[in-house]
């Protein structure tokens, strides 16, 4: 298992280098879209993630897979960056690099990431209401939502922005009520 802190420390300079290349070519959003696609792909395919993590797989095999999985509309600089990661034997931290790149992109665009946990998937109107609430809380320009569904909440939502947590779930309300009743 990879150490999260060590992985983040190793990934940070690579994410910053990728941001530097993106800025110099005015491709920050395009690289962001490519990074999001890779994060999704690695999350959905344990086999691909394990393939990149395996130190015994030949470098050329990893490069061939990268060239195969990236679509033609992927920027050549982004593709070359991934090939460089293979050469430097850092492809195993691709997910962490992409996550950190997206964090840098959010910082650049003055966008905050809000994790929303709800009992059922949110409608578009509910998403907009959550975004407006987060903008009011943080004074950010934009809000990017990361949604998760947890039926154990019974109803309502939990919104996490950085270290702030708003628990407007029924489960949270019941827990607070229980604490009040037991402390009386």
Automatic annotation (TrEMBL):
Keyword Metal-binding: no
UniProtKB keywords: ATP synthesis, CF(1), Hydrogen ion transport, Ion transport, Membrane, Thylakoid, Transport
Protein location: Cellular thylakoid membrane; Membrane
Chief location bin: membrane
Membrane association type: Peripheral membrane protein
PANTHER family in UniProt: ATP SYNTHASE DELTA CHAIN
Native source species: Brunnivagina elsteri CCALA 953
Family: Belongs to the ATPase delta chain family.
Recorded GO MF terms: proton-transporting ATP synthase activity, rotational mechanism
Gene: atpH
Cross-referenced SUPFAM superfamilies: N-terminal domain of the delta subunit of the F1F0-ATP synthase (SSF47928)
Name by which UniProt lists this protein: ATP synthase subunit delta
Purpose: F(1)F(0) ATP synthase produces ATP from ADP in the presence of a proton or sodium gradient. F-type ATPases consist of two structural domains, F(1) containing the extramembraneous catalytic core and F(0) containing the membrane proton channel, linked together by a central stalk and a peripheral stalk. During catalysis, ATP synthesis in the catalytic domain of F(1) is coupled via a rotary mechanism of the central stalk subunits to proton translocation. This protein is part of the stalk that links CF(0) to CF(1). It either transmits conformational changes from CF(0) to CF(1) or is implicated in proton conduction.
Any one GO cellular component localisation term in the record: proton-transporting ATP synthase complex
Pfam hit, one: OSCP
